[in-house]
Design a protein that fits this description.
about 220 residues, alpha/beta, Rossmann fold, 7 helices, globular, PRTase-like, glycosyltransferase, PRTase_dom, glycosyltransferase activity, transferase
């Protein structure tokens, strides 16, 4: 099968083409979900001439199948729990709380790592907040991210993705105001199947991208 995207940067440029209506506006903010969403978001921010920030999200994986999300957390104590999946997998409350505690610690570590002391979080109140990831599978991370953002009173929340399942918009529709996606295939197994190069984005990669974006746009809070 032909992969529609060469890599995350290519995916970001393709996604930016679907967001042209937000280009050149001073009320738009782009937020990448670390780690893989940040290189995609960088291309979107560059194309739209908008400031870039991160919104740290951590998936809550089923203990014996970590890639399967039973929920997610995001900066600002936002929490999403897939209660149906919890019932189906019979994850105990103790196991859930253990995963939650571990991921809260990881989220705090990532916040400290990515949030430069001199670079405050970008203000999103009364602005269009475009949340970008490299793809959507279960929707847990995007849901938690949207809930975290909603608490910061944006004018509008846009979920923007290169690829997602055909039913993705209905999965997260209640949490966002607009859904933008380049490819929504009927046959979907994993985000990685739609990239020729889906190599890992590291913490250092994220830091470097944020530094590049910050130096290009001036003060991040502007």
């Amino acid at each position: 099968m032909h992969q529609p995207f060469a890599n995350r940067a290519d995916a970001g440029r393709a996604l930016a083409d679907h967001l042209k209506q937000y280009a050149g506006r001073d009320d738009v903010v782009v937020l990448g979900l670390p780690r893989g969403g940040v290189p995609v978001a960088y291309e979107v921010a560059c194309a739209l001439r908008a400031p870039l920030d991160v919104l740290v999200v951590r998936k809550l994986g089923v203990p014996w199948q970590p890639e399967l999300a039973m929920g997610a957390i995001a900066s600002g104590n936002a929490l999403y729990v897939d209660e149906e999946l919890l019932r189906e997998t019979a994850v105990s409350r103790d196991d859930f709380e253990r995963v939650l505690a571990d991921e809260k610690a990881q989220l705090a570590r990532r916040e400290a790592l990515f949030r430069d002391p001199q670079r405050a979080a970008i203000e999103v109140a009364q602005r269009v907040a475009i949340i970008v990831d490299d793809g959507l599978a279960t929707g847990a991370s995007m849901t938690a991210a949207a809930r975290a953002l909603r608490a910061r009173s944006p004018a509008k929340i846009v979920a923007a993705l290169p690829v997602a399942p055909a039913d993705a918009a209905s999965r997260i529709g209640g949490e966002i105001d607009e859904f933008v996606c380049v490819v929504t295939p009927q046959s979907f197994f994993a985000v990685s199947q739609f990239y020729s190069d889906f190599s890992e984005t590291t913490d250092d990669d994220v830091r470097a991208i944020l530094a590049r974006a910050s130096s290009a746009s001036g003060p991040a809070s502007s």
